[in-house]
Amino acid sequence: MSDRKTKLAPLPSVNFVPERDAAFTPILECRGLGINFGGLSAVNDFNLAIGRTEIAGLIGPNGAGKTTVFNLLTKVYQPTKGAILLNGVDTFDKTSVQISKMGIARTFQNIRLFANLSVEDNVKIGLHNQIKYSEISGLLRLPSYWKQERKARERARQLLSIFDMQDLAESKAGSLPYGAQRRLEIVRALAAKPSLLLLDEPAAGMNPSETAELMDNIVKIRDVFQIAIFLIEHDMRLVMGICEGICVVNFGNIIAKGTPDEIRGNPEVIEAYLGKGFVGGSESRKY
Predict the structure, then answer these.
(1) Dist. CA 1–CA 3, nearest whole Å
(2) What is the 3-state secondary structure (H, E, C) of 123-139?
């Protein structure tokens, strides 16, 4: 698990990243980000940076705007105002496909697997940007096709081994237990070789043992792939246990940013989200 005493270093803007990442351009920086739906401001003046190897958390009550932020980052929605910089590059007018190629991959609150395909094939779909054979080669099953297919199969098995799922490669994705489907979705996202992985409630539906294993694996993914991870989660044990920087939103506005210790003791956060019973550390509860 992460060092829960990680220090955050200020950037020239209003944002912070871990000290070890401070000398590098943040993998993600949001500046004054916002979106309106009609007359409703769903996200307003959202400012956040994520360091290149940071595990960061986004928390808040249901309906606070968390998934909307993820949809803005991946261009499911186009912002009404503000800027999103990915590795220092403005993503203005980029499409979801272009954002994926720029290095963002995500999972979803509701699992979106191809249930009738095998576990391995689901991962291979995530490798689409890396498969290099022509349509003719694929149609005629030329040697170049089989060479790329073999590479894709080997890579899919390697990625599945992160979660010890390689023995399930031939199983149908839809036949897996709920927790395993969640893990498969993370593996498929990793197949795209992201520099920033967005996880939308990755522990949803998991029991405490599965959640503890997931925490270890999230840290392992960050360390092995040297990428940043930004997660939405309601399980405070997970958030406080592995996140270095935490952003708290309520009604589309940021009400606090800081380390787990700073967030845990923030009166406004306690009132809006954690609850008075959280003081003293009931981190195993889900909110």
Answers:
(1) 7
(2) HHHHCHHHCCCCHHHHH
Listed in order, the ranges of the chain carrying CATH 3.40.50.300 are 1-103+194-287
d(CA 239, CA 170): 33
Q: What angle do CA 73, 74, 75 make, to 5 degrees?
A: 95
pLDDT-based confidence at 15, cuts 50/70/90? Answer: confident
Distances (CA, A) of 252 to 58, 80, 121, 217: 12, 13, 38, 30
pLDDT in tens, 29-48: 999 999 999 888 999 999 99
Spatial neighbors of 73 by CB under 8 A, at least 6 apart, are 28, 30, 84, 99, 104, 198
Please say whether the dihedral angle defined by the alpha carbons of residues 251, 257, 260 and 264, taken in this order, is positive or negative. negative
Express each pLDDT in 144-159 by its tens digit: 766 777 888 899 999 9
198, β-bridge pairs: 106, 230
Per CATH, the architecture of 1-103+194-287 is what?
3-Layer(aba) Sandwich (3.40)
